[in-house]
Amino acid sequence: MSVHLCVGLVQISYLTQFGYLPEADRETGFLRTESQLRESIKNLQRFGNIPATGDIDDDTLELMSRPRCGIQDIPNFYKRRRRRFAVHGQKWHTTNLSWSLRTKNFNNSSLDYGRLRADLHRALQLWARHSRLTFAEVNSDNADILVYFEKGFHGDGYPFDGQGQVLAHAFFPGGGRGGDVHFDIEEPWQLTGDEENGNGVNLFVVAAHEFGHSLGLSHSSVADSLMYPWYNSNNDLSGEFDLSDDDRYGIQQIYGAKDRLWGKNTGDKPVHRWPLRPPTLAPPRGWDPQVPVTEKPRTTTTTTTPTTTTTRRTTTTASPWGTDSERPDTCNTAYDAVSIIRKEVYIFKGKYIWRLGNRGLYAGYPALTTRLWNNLPASLTRVDAVYERLDKKIVFFIGRQVYVFHGTNPLEGYPKQLTDLGLPRSVDKIDAAMVWGYNSRTYLFSGTMYWKFDEDEQRVELDYPRDMGNIWKGVGYNIDAAFQWKDGNVYFFKGKGFWKFNDRTMSVENKKPLQSSHFWMGCPAIDLNDTLGNEIPTDEPDTVGQSAFLAANLQNLLICFIISFVCRVYQR
Ligand SMILES: [Ca+2]
Ligand SMILES: [Ca+2]
Ligand SMILES: [Zn+2]
Ligand SMILES: [Zn+2]
What we know:
With 572 residues, this protein is of the alpha+beta class. The protein has three domains: 9-63 and 546-571, no CATH class; 96-262, Collagenase (Catalytic Domain), CATH 3.40.390; 331-521, Hemopexin, CATH 2.110.10.10. Helices cover 20% and strands 19% of the residues. A six-stranded mixed sheet has the order 1-5-6-4-2-3, with helices on one face. Strands 9, 10, 11, 12 and 13 form a five-stranded antiparallel sheet that branches. It is elongated and about 80 Å long. One calcium ion is lined by residues 336-337, 384-385, 431-432, 480-481. Ca(2+) 1 binds at residue 187.
């Protein structure tokens, strides 16, 4: 006997509202074939980047409980295997557009008109910065893009739903309502500068998303893109926020790139795997390559209690339109691998990467590693080590396998096995790999041992392995990552700390590890005392967030159980 799929009315309604089930099936959802219903659930799960089980499981309930945009998703996994931005098909036939904030419903609102306009302006500039579009503010009902704050039914057939769920919607380019943006006035909108007061919904981010629709973009299933349908309240906008690559490719496909720096736009696919210029952003605190990495003299007496739990940031610097339970906390994590790639620093953790340019951490990260290297296995959960060879090929170690890429293109003949490189069968993973500037030779680390690797022979040299303590003094064993930075020095990472290795003294410059997130990510410094790298502070569960989740899920579960019960009665 098969287990039947029972889906609650709330879920049927959700699947219909956001384009996963045809409107006509809203009432007759239970009469659909089970496989059709499962397929629509899977499409939602794929769009939301959660496991495509076809069941209304906990992940799915959580996804459905997140606040989001009211525009339907267009799940189309049949035509296009690569999930990325989608162009709606309607576009403006001029690149000089006008916009206007209309205030007919502002009587009861506490929103500050001037600061609201400033946020809307900034949101439009995100799109202007990366395309040929320009936006002029006017005070007129005839502007191309009219912005309204609306409540409940407001005359366009898409009623708002009070606080929560749907935050806003917009109309694709065209006459009449085309291009207009409606915000649900009942949301606790938060303007720039109000970040301190509580858990509001960030207006700037939602506006930037909705303007994407106004310009002709549909939803993207790329979790860290602005056009991802779900809002992440856990965002941090302290740095300068920017479009993700995905959003940029989308807007440039419709309206062209701003200048020749971006090269010729072919109009049908992303041209550059490696953006030619970094987004502008302020250098994070503590970022100064000129300042030597040395331990600060201790001016305070050490205490025995680590203060990490009180000073830890609970937000990430990721793009706000993505949440992922696997997404690492930028300010509180160990690293799996670190490497210079094309003169930039890439830091790997789990499925994610951060990217650091000359001016520090790029906006929009961490991003999925498989977005850049989409020929890595889709099942990738982590990489063990990464390094860039002198011939600029990029080598990934994942478990017992070795992948080599030219840019993002896989080299033929890979993946190879660790044993193909002459490593013993007992080595089940590489901890770190790097080219040492001292002699331009490649080194591999695993556990207590290290090998010198002959790039010409593509094999480890004969008189290895050796004990790490012989040469890498002060680093210890079982390191997480190592790389040679642009200052020519080798950096070793373990836990949440790192050491700088001095080639002249052949030992670490700092006996105690320094805080990785402070130096590399620009996170606030925390007093780590002696715990860093030895006894790693553990992540405290975010109990407030969890109970909020539970409450939201319980509401849905309750309905689910009732419906399940009805289903079972019917089956008898
Ligand atoms: Ca709402
Ligand atoms: Ca590693
Ligand atoms: Zn949307
Ligand atoms: Zn509306």
